[in-house]
Amino acid sequence: MWDDALYLGTAHLSQKQHKISIEKPKFALMNKNPSTQILFQKDAITWLHQRLESLADGVTPVFLLADTNTYQLCYPKIKSCFEGLGDQMHTIVLDAGEASKSLSSCQHIWKELLKAEAGRDAVLFNLGGGMVTDLGGFAASVYKRGIRTIHIPTTLLGMVDAAIGHKTAIDFMGVKNPIGSFYAAEAVLIMTDFLTTLPKNQLVSGLAEVIKYGYIANPKLIDLAHIDQMNPEHSEIIIRYCIDAKQRIVSADPKEQDLRKILNFGHTIGHAFESLAMERKDTLLHGEAVAIGMFCALWLSGQYSQKAFGLLKSYNHWYRAHFIPYPIKPADTARLMELMRQDKKNKGNDLRFVLLEYAGKPRYDVGVPDERVKESLFAYMDWVRQVDLQENT
Ligand SMILES: NC(=O)c1ccc[n+]([C@@H]2O[C@H](COP(=O)([O-])OP(=O)(O)OC[C@H]3O[C@@H](n4cnc5c(N)ncnc54)[C@H](O)[C@@H]3O)[C@@H](O)[C@H]2O)c1
Fold it and tell me: Does the pLDDT at position 383 exceed 80?
């Protein structure tokens, strides 16, 4: 069966190679790897001080985008860096939550920029989780055809994933991320001190993305991604490993034509759970949904590869230590399958997955028949039932 999977993967690549046999112009190559400086801890603060000092010319408009929580809890930690700016500084604070990742928030940002007569020299600092960096990055990428932007992620998910890799987006018409751009921030500043105020469920949601990097790129992270170990020193180590993995993947394939797809491990089924929960008005964070998606992806991997078979058992221990299983009924599988079909990454009839040959060895574009996908959902339901039974006896 893995031969089929390999065939799908290589068929896809050889088609692509065939298409791009014409020599690319030089500017396309230059744009392929836009550079973003990534700075950690003290280096990040020093960079921020120096950057803001260089901007304090009395003229260049400087904007800070935050949400209500990050403005209240995170901004005080870096406020002193912005103090020399006086009237040059403009602050935009939005309601916290995914609902703010919208076109109307973009319009609000663009209005504030226009009101301040911001030209292409303006600079936008995005202080927040993935909602703020996705939104601010997108707003900056199209205002006057692109102004400089700097991400200061404040959630674990933002630090290991959303602020890294140049993807920006807003939600539109109830769909997540259909409008967006690839746009490089000038810098991403990682300061783990922000994590001290992050609610535990948000930290755990970020850990799901951390363990994902363990399965697809660096198996060390499978053991390191544990809530009990999350002191500042440990957080910095795992964030560095994750960023290293993401940068290697993204620089090999900036626009998700092939290798970058491996970052979607657990996400096809995870997104379907996220949408189902939204329809039911349940709260299910992104990482919580991806954690269910990874259960199913590991179950499927075990069906195709002997070496991946044992992975689910240890994953289940990890899952139980971090999450309360989200319940679904057999009748929900039809809707989940429909939602998976709407996934923008699918082509043709097959549902395509990232599966593992073994930990650290992912395969992308693996076509899986619907029946198998449903079996993985039933395996999840069975497991949730067993957990419930164990907890109630
Ligand atoms: N661009 C990408 O490559 C990429 C990758 C993954 C996810 N995303 C996007 O990221 C978003 C999710 O990001 P998120 O999980 O960071 O959510 P988020 O930005 O909504 O933050 C979660 C919550 O934590 C609060 N918060 C943030 N930092 C805090 C802090 N230090 N202390 C206390 N509270 C804090 C926020 O106000 C919010 O209520 C989604 O929109 C998703 O689509 C983008």
Answer: yes
Residue 242, both tokens = 């994750």
C-alpha span between 239 and 362 (Å, rounded): 21
Third-level CATH fold of 33-198: Rossmann fold (3.40.50)
Q: How far is CA 173 from CA 94, 103, 104, 145, in A?
A: 19, 10, 12, 24
Instruction: Please name the amino acid found at residue 58.
Output: G
CB 168 within 8 A of CB 132: no
| Residue 198 in contact with ligand 1 by CB distance below 6 A | yes
Q: What's the whole-model pTM score? A: 0.90
297-327 per-position pLDDT tens digit: 999 999 999 999 999 999 999 999 999 999 9
For the chain, the C-alpha Rg in angstroms (whole number) is 22
CATH architecture under which domain 263-392 falls: Up-down Bundle (1.20)
Domain ranges of the chain: 33-198, 263-392
Same fold, 33-198 and 263-392: no
Alpha-carbon distance of 150 to 101, in angstroms, equals 17
Substitution candidate for ligand 1 out of 138, 157, 345 with most atoms within 8 A of CB: 157
